[in-house]
Amino acid sequence: MRKRAQRFERLAASVFKHSQEGIVVTDMYNHIIDANPASLRLSGYSREEVLGKDPRMFSSGNHPRSFYTTMWKAINEFGHWQGEIQNRKKSGEFYTEQLSIDVVSDRDGNLQHYVAAFSDISYLKEHAMALKEIAYNDALTGLPNRLLLQDRMQQALSHAKRQGKQIAVCYLDLDGFKPVNDNHGHQAGDQILIEVARRLQQNLRTGDTVARLGGDEFVLLMLDIRSTSELEQLLARVLKTIAEPYALQDTTLTLFASIGIATHPPDSEEADTLLRHADQAMYAAKQSGKNRYAFFDPSEEQKAVTINSIQREIQIALAREQLRLYYQPKVNMASGAMAGVEALIRWQHPEKGLLTPDAFLPAIEHSELIFDLGHWVLRQALTQMRAWKMEGIELEVSVNIAALQLQRVDFVPSLKALLAEFPDVPASRLQLEILETAALQDINAVSKIIAQCAELGVQFALDDFGTGYSSLTYLRRLPTQVLKIDQSFIRDLLSDPEDLAITKGILGLTQAFQRTVVAEGVETIEHGTLLLKLGCELAQGYGIARPMPAGDLPAWMDSYQIPSEWKKANLDYSI
Q: Are 522 and 541 in contact (CB under 8 A)?
C-alpha cells in the first residue's frame, strides 16, 4: 500500500514538473508554497522570487475590484472558479490566461491549499481579434465593412431614439471611377480608394463612421445631427475634399462623388431601409448631374419599384423578341441623296403598343441590362445591313451607344468579334453615336476607344453636340468624324436669335476642324432652307421622314424628293 502511494506521489510530482500548463500551489492563507517550471516560464519569475508571495504579484491592474470579489465568492462557495484573466509578466508584458482555481481540503473538509492551473491564451486572443478584424473590416482600406456598419447603425438608431437625436446615413459613390481601373490598372484604382478612405475619415467628426461596402461605394454614418444646414456643410466639405486631385505614379486624376442622404427621424427605424433609401437618393444625385448630394424623396421609392418592374419586363421583351429597330433617314438637303439612316429602338409592347426609347431606356441606363440591349441593337443593325446589301441597298447605319456600354473593358473586343460574324458588311458603313456629355466624362479613355474602333474601320459621331459645353481643346482631342447638332438648337432656330447664333458657331467650328455636321430635328421646310443658307447640308428630322420599319425604307427612298424650296435655296454661308 505504501509503495503504491509512493508511486502515485512520484507520478504526481512528475506531472507537476513536466506539465506544459502552469501550476501554482498556495497555502490556506494564499501564500505560494510551490510553482512548477511551466508557471515560472510563463511569468518570467524564478522560484525564489515567488515562494511565500501572494499571487496578487501577477496582477495586471486591468480588472476592477468587483472582478476579484466575484471570483473569490465562487471559490469560497463552490470550491472552484474558472475563466479568463489578464496578468502581467515580470517584464511588464500583459498576457491573457485561461485560469482555473480549485480548493484542496482534508478528509474533514478543512481548507488546506489552493491550486491554480493556467495557460497563456494570448495567441488565441490575438488570432480571434484578427479574425474579427477580417470579418468586420474592409481588407483594402481598413474601414468598417457592411457587417460592422449594420451593427453601428443599429446602435445609432437606438441612441437616436433614446436621446431624441437625428442621424444621417449618406451613401457615397465615386463618379467615373470605372475608367480608372480600365485605363490605369487595379493597383492605381486601389491606391485611389485608400486615399478616398483617408480623406473621408479626416473630414468626419468624432463618433461618426465611414464604411466601405465594396468597389467605390462608401457609407457615412453621422450622429447627433442638429440641423439640415449643419449636415449640408459637412457634405459640401466632403465633396470638395473628394474632388481634390489624386497623384498616381505617372499622372494626376480628378474624381468627383455623388451622395444620397436618408435621415432618421423622419425616415425609417430600420437600418436596411435607411441604407436602401440613401442608395436611391445617390442615384438621383447622379441623374441630376453628379458631383452633388441629394436627400431621399419618398416618391423615389415608388420610382425604384417602377424601374425594377420595367427592367424585368425588358428582360422578357428581349427573350420574346418584342424589341424592334426603326430607321430614320439622313439626307443631303442640297442634292436629295441619302446620307444614311439612324437605328432607333422601339418596344412592341403586348399591352401598351409601340413604345419609344424615352418610355423605357432611362430605367436601364445605369444597369447591367444596358449591355445586353446594346449588343442586341448592334447585332440587329448589322443583320439588317446584310439584308439590305442583298437587295442592292448599301447605307451607312448609325447606332447609339450608351456611356456605360462604351466604357466597358471588353467593348472593343466584343465589337470586333461581332463584326467578324458579318464579313460581308463593310465596317466603314457602321457609325457609332455617343453623347457629347458621356464623351467628356473621361475624354482620354473615350479617345482611345474611338481610335481602337477606327482601326476596325468603324466611324464615330458625337451626338447632341452643343449640350456639353465643350471647349475647343475637347473638340480637337476627340477623333470623331461627325458632329450632330442637338435638336434643341434646331427646333427654335427660326425664332430664337440665341439658338441661331449657337448653330452658326457650331457650323464654324466644324468647318475649322474639318468635321462633317448633321442637323437633328429638322421639322419643317423652313428649317431646312435656313440650314442650307448657313452651309449645313446633312440633316434628319420629322420634316424629312419619321423613323420607320426596315421594310418601309426602300419604297420611301424610291419616292423621296427634296422640296423645291431647298433646290432654290441660295447657299450663302455668310447670312
A: yes
In this predicted model, what pLDDT tens digit does every residue of 121-145 receive, in sequence order?
Answer: 877 777 666 556 566 788 888 888 8
Inter-residue contact 115 to 101 (CB < 8 Å): yes
Three cell numbers written together for 347: 418596344
- From CA 552, how far away is CA 555, in angstroms rounded? 6
Q: Which residues of 122-145 are buried (b: 16+ CB within 10 A; e: fewer)?
A: eeeeeeeeeeeeeebbbeebebbb
CA atoms within 13 A on the CB side of 362: 13
Report the phi/psi class of residue 541: left, alpha or beta, with left for phi > 0 and alpha for psi in -120 to 50. Answer: left
> How far does Cα 199 stand from its chain's mean position?
17
The DSSP 8-state label assigned to residue 216 in this structure reads T
Q: How many residues does the chain have?
A: 575
Q: Cell 507537476 sits at which residue?
A: 16
Instruction: Give all domains of the chain, ordered by start, each with its CATH number.
Output: 2-126 (3.30.450.20), 138-296 (3.30.70.270), 306-568 (3.20.20.450)
Beta bridge partners of 170: 220, 261
pLDDT tens string 469-487:
555 556 667 778 888 888 8
Place of cell 447657299: 571
Q: Identity (one letter) of the amino acid at 130?
A: A
> Where would I find the beta strands (DSSP E) of 436-569?
459-465, 482-485, 516-519, 538-539, 548-549
Quick check: 458 and 431 in contact, CB under 8 A?
yes
Global pTM value: 0.57
CB–CB of 136/147 below 8 Å?
A: yes
Q: Alpha-carbon distance 156 to 373, whole Å? A: 42
Rounded to whole angstroms, the Cα distance separating 12 from 39 reads 16
